[in-house]
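User: I've been trying to design a sequence by hand for this structure and keep getting stuck. Would you show me what you'd pick, starting by listing the structure so we're on the same page?

Assistant: Good idea, let's start from the same input. This is the structure you sent:
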């Protein structure tokens, strides 16, 4: 499970995503699918940049809920969250993350209610060696 973040001007937003696809290794290209109704979609579409923070198995449900079940239109999701600003100007979530990468959008594909953003990774870092939070673990162990 991941938090995909982006920015619009001086505003930040992020959301939970459960699938990120590596398209190529050289150059490092990934694909993310974002619901058009989500504020994060608007931010990525306009700024053409995003970050992906890979969550650990230890991530509390309250933290997942903040980014997964609430809208950035109603609250500042980054309040009381440890993050840093990356090369793209987009926040990188450090709380509960094991690694991250930053990407610049190279293409966007309209697929109905979603847009698949194709991004070229421009920086990445492994933060620790904890286990990643998989979608299966989220459902089977955390009962999400």
């Amino acid at each position: 499970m991941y938090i995909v973040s982006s920015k619009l001007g001086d505003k930040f937003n992020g959301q939970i995503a459960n699938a990120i696809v590596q398209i190529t290794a050289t150059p490092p290209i990934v694909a993310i699918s974002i619901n058009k109704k989500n504020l994060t979609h608007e931010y990525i579409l306009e700024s053409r940049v995003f970050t992906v923070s890979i969550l650990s198995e230890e991530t509390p449900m309250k933290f997942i809920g903040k980014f997964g079940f609430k809208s950035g239109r109603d609250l500042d999701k980054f309040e009381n969250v440890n993050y840093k600003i990356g090369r793209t100007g987009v926040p990188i979530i450090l709380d509960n993350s094991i690694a991250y990468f930053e990407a610049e959008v190279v293409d966007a594909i309209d697929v109905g209610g979603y847009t698949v953003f194709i991004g070229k990774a421009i920086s990445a870092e492994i933060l620790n060696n904890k286990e990643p939070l998989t979608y299966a673990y989220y459902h089977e162990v955390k009962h999400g």
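That's my pick for every position. To get oriented when you compare it with your attempt: The first helix runs from residue 39 to 47. The first strand starts at residue 2 and ends at 8.
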